Amino acid sequence: MTSSRMTDEKDKGTRIFCALDSADLDKVRALAQSIAGAVDGLKLGLEFFSARGPAGIRDIAQLGVPIFLDVKLHDIPNTVAGAIRSLATLAPYYLTLHAGGGAEMMRVARNTAHEEAARLSLTPPRLLAVTVLTSLDDNDLAQQGVSGTASAQVVRLAELARAAGIDGIVSSPREISAIRAACGEGFDIVVPGIRPGGSATGDQKRVMTPGEAVRAGASALVIGRPITAADDPAPAAMQIRQEIDAV
Ligand code: C5P
Hints:
This protein is globular. Residues 1-5 and 7-11 have low confidence and may be disordered. It is 45% helix and 15% strand. It is of the alpha/beta class. The chain has a single domain (8-245), classed as TIM Barrel (Alpha-Beta Barrel), CATH 3.20.20.70. It has helices at residues 5-8, 25-35, 46-61, 77-88, 103-119, 138-143, 150-163, 176-183, 210-216, 225-228, 233-245; strands spanning 15-19, 41-45, 67-73, 94-98, 126-130, 168-170, 188-191, 220-223. Strands 1-2-3-4-5-6-7-8 form an 8-stranded parallel β-barrel, surrounded by 5 helices. Strand 2 (41-45), helix 3 (46-61) and strand 3 (67-73) form a beta-alpha-beta unit. Cytidine-5'-monophosphate binds at residues 19, 21, 43, 45, 134, 170, 172, 192-193, 202, 204, 222-225.
């Protein structure tokens, strides 16, 4: 079994989760095997889960790498609770849901995750709330009847999530400081949109380097293409690790 840094030696500091955005199981497995020892976990999202389902998640998880299951649950509390009971058997390290589902949905999600994990003798997943999708701007929110800025809405929803017992939040790099100030320590701020100096930004519009995100207070970084599209992914991940450790 391949081991990861998090299970081996490191349970503190800023973690690296590599986003494996593909529906191709062989490709994801090969990438996962090559970088498992160089990152703290792997993020599998809707593309992979829609194509490969729970069996695909189990296939990758058997490498022994913590899994960030990014399926962004959003429904009425009873339905989200049912989904969490089904997903709990996969024992993800992180599991995402939309804060827009409301305080009651998040409370039920948290309680269900803990109850089901206890019943299965598993560690409960850490639930992460998604606030305002970074594809939405102030105008999009105004169209939905949300007044004020997207940034203010992000902080409002982060505080709601924290009060509902959610473990952390997925945040754009530029919101890290405001969320940390509002929600304090002990709340995971997990940040995509990371680009090491000199790497291609691709479709990411607002990026930070790994070092900048750590200094701003990120708990974990989600990094995809700077690792997965590198000629040699494992050394690319190790280089990012060195940049983080040097902060
Ligand atoms: O390849 P890249 O480093 O841009 O991958 C970033 C990952 O984080 C992707 O899986 C993407 O879907 C996810 N993500 C993001 N921005 C958000 C939320 C999630 O890039 N606001």
